[in-house]
């Protein structure tokens, strides 16, 4: 016992220890308050980021299960199903091939952007409150978390003033591309590990530089940085591989540029740094070898990308146009991209001019040059294989043409390279504002004001939301168990498709306790086993989809009944269900009764045991 306070001779030892501990415990809240007061500026920035993220996503919060992001509801239904499937890890289901969709073949969770790490981490939330709540929480947390992580990097690694760091971090987390991707692309907005990866790379470089200490390279810090980098990279693979890919490409470009500009540092640190990077890569591969094999060569895996780089190319004009999701943007700008979830460029002319002026004012510092080159390279790659200007495809080839067709690379969308520009320009702004605030004269007021004015038009507006139809009591009340056992296959009518994934909400509401045929996912159903969205529709599925679109009563004969029985057997289905309120429900019911016989009423659905 280290305390010098006297203890009564007849005191019991346990009581004496408790007597000493009580004041310490009473002091802990005081210590916490003292720490918060000491860091009140940082706490204020964090709270502002959280408030801004909550404001942008507030349309979901009145009732997440009944609200949807109006600009991309299909992907929201998909990601909610992903989160429901991920949460099953808490129930002991760790298989990367799930049969809860696309029965009987299943879905490869590594091939799809299933945000496994986030889904498993928040599984208690999903199982307690439902996947829509988890989705809304992540939509908000990814924006705030990314901003906070960059703020910590700018203040702790660049040692920037808090005002400068806050401005840069706000652009990183709430820039046009990030806000746009929040429209249901959780794997793209979960970027809070990127600053950690950058910090570990920088830490390794410092430790590998023999000029940093009197004793030469700090091998212990090189090793610890490598271990930490391997862990961060591994985690990011299970959060979002495309973000990791963009981060790796950007860091590679910056590292090469930095080495060219500061050759002395490159000569000093290269041996230790290269050794640390190889150690990090080796450790990560030990963990990731099997999941990556499963993704590209495992069951239902694909090794190619399914999105055309020509279609998903950034329009050159979009770079100096303001996003429709910003306060100064207009709806007319939407024609310059593929959809509201891909406003990845749209930085506006004022910010581009101010960023360029800041880069010139900062001079030829290695970090500045690396950021400028990184911005130019990733920005150019975003233009795709052919440059598009104001909606017109030109004959001018883009730098991406040099990468098109390469393994892994063709799985990335060119226009998403623009997301890497946000932290690069943000770093330039942070360096410029920090330098201005540390010096006297006109620049001390002019530079922060110019940066603030350039960022103001990009202030995002709340994401549009809308109500969505309530789920049938058949699902929410658990009545589905009367016709299919947990783990069995339920066939909703019509079946889910990539364009109409709404029946997947049934499985989501049931925590993916039952499987479904077909659906919205990426699988090897393209020509020659290449990647495709969704799968082939079985004849009965196609028949029911047509009735669901147009109504009417098709002629059903013995051939259709035989095919319906074969399809049900192929799916491994136990039950077919048609909920009240389904478009052309009467026509669908009549068709199903001709195919499978009389229906059984369960809650607000008609069911057929097959």
How would you summarize the topology of this molecule?
Layout: H1 13-38, H2 40-56, E1 67-69, H3 73-86, E2 97-98, E3 107-108, H4 116-121, H5 123-129, H6 131-156, H7 162-174, H8 176-181, H9 186-189, H10 194-208, H11 219-237, H12 241-261, H13 263-297, H14 349-362, H15 366-381, E4 386-389, E5 392-397, H16 421-438, H17 443-455, E6 465-467, H18 473-476, E7 489-492, H19 504-509, E8 522-523, E9 532-533, H20 539-550, H21 558-571, E10 573-579, H22 585-596, E11 600-602, E12 605-609
Parallel strand pairs: 7-10
Antiparallel strand pairs: 1-6, 2-3, 4-5, 8-9, 10-12, 11-12
Helix pairs in contact: 2-6, 2-7, 3-6, 5-6, 6-7, 6-10, 7-16, 10-11, 10-13, 11-13, 12-13, 12-15, 14-16, 14-17, 15-16, 16-17
Written overview of the protein:
It contains 22 helices and twelve strands. The longest helix is centred in the middle third of the chain and has 35 residues. Helix 12 packs antiparallel against helix 13, helix 14 packs antiparallel against helix 17 and helix 16 runs antiparallel to helix 17. By secondary structure, it is of the alpha+beta class. A four-stranded mixed beta sheet has the order 7-10-12-11. The protein has a two-stranded antiparallel ribbon with strand order 1-6. A two-stranded antiparallel ribbon has the order 2-3. The N terminus is likely disordered. Strand 8 and strand 9 form a beta hairpin.
């Amino acid at each position: 016992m280290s305390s010098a306070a006297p203890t009564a001779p007849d005191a019991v030892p346990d009581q004496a220890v408790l007597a000493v501990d009580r004041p310490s415990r009473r002091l802990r809240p005081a210590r916490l308050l003292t720490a918060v007061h000491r860091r009140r500026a940082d706490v204020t920035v964090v709270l502002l980021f959280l408030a801004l993220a909550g404001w942008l996503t507030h349309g979901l919060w009145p009732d997440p299960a009944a609200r949807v992001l109006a600009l991309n509801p299909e992907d929201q239904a998909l990601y909610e199903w992903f989160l429901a499937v991920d949460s099953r890890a808490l129930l002991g289901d760790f298989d990367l091939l799930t049969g809860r969709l696309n029965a009987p073949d299943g879905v490869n969770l590594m091939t799809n952007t299933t945000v496994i790490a986030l889904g498993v981490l928040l599984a208690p939330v999903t199982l307690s409150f439902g996947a829509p709540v988890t989705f809304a929480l992540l939509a908000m947390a990814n924006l705030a978390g990314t901003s906070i992580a960059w703020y910590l990097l700018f203040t702790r690694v660049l040692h920037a003033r808090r005002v400068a760091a806050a401005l840069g971090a706000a652009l990183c987390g709430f820039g046009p591309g990030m806000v746009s991707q929040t429209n249901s692309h959780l794997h793209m907005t979960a970027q809070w590990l990127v600053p950690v990866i950058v910090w570990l790379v920088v830490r390794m470089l410092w430790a590998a530089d023999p000029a940093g200490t009197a004793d030469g390279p700090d091998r212990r810090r090189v090793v610890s940085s490598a271990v930490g980098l391997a862990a961060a990279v591994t985690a990011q693979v299970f959060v979002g591989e495309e973000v990791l890919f963009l981060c790796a490409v950007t860091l590679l470009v910056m590292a090469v540029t930095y080495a060219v500009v500061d050759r002395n540092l490159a000569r000093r640190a290269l041996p230790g740094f290269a050794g640390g990077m190889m150690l990090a890569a080796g450790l990560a591969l030990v963990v990731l070898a099997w999941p990556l094999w499963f993704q590209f060569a495992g069951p239902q895996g694909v090794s190619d990308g399914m999105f055309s780089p020509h279609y998903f190319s950034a329009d050159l004009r979009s770079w100096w146009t303001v996003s429709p999701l910003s306060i100064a943007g207009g709806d007319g700008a939407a024609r310059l991209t593929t959809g509201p979830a891909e406003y990845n460029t749209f930085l506006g002319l004022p910010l581009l001019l101010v960023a360029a002026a800041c880069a010139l004012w900062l001079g030829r510092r290695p970090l500045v040059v690396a950021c400028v080159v990184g911005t130019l390279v990733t920005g150019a790659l975003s233009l795709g294989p052919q440059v598009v200007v104001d909606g017109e495809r030109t004959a001018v080839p883009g730098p991406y043409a040099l990468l098109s067709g390469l393994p892994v690379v063709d799985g990335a969308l060119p226009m998403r390279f623009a997301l890497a520009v946000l932290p690069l320009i943000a770093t330039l702004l942070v360096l410029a504002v920090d330098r201005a605030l540390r010096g006297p004269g006109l620049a001390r007021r002019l530079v922060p004001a110019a940066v603030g004015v350039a960022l103001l038009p990009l202030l995002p507006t709340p994401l549009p939301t809308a109500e969505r139809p309530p789920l049938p009591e058949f699902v929410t009340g658990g009545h589905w168990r009367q016709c299919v056992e947990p783990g069995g296959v339920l066939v909703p009518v019509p079946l889910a498709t990539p364009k109409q994934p709404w029946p997947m909400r049934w499985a989501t509401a049931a925590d993916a306790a039952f499987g479904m045929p077909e659906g919205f996912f990426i699988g090897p159903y393209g020509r020659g086993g290449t990647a495709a969205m969704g799968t082939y529709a079985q004849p009965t599925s196609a028949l029911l989809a047509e009735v669901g679109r147009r109504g009417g009563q098709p002629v059903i004969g013995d051939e259709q009944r035989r095919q319906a029985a074969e399809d049900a057997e192929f799916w491994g289905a136990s039950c077919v269900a048609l909920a009240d309120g389904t478009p052309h429900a009467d026509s669908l019911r009549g068709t199903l009764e001709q195919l499978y016989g009389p229906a059984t009423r369960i809650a607000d659905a008609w069911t057929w045991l097959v």
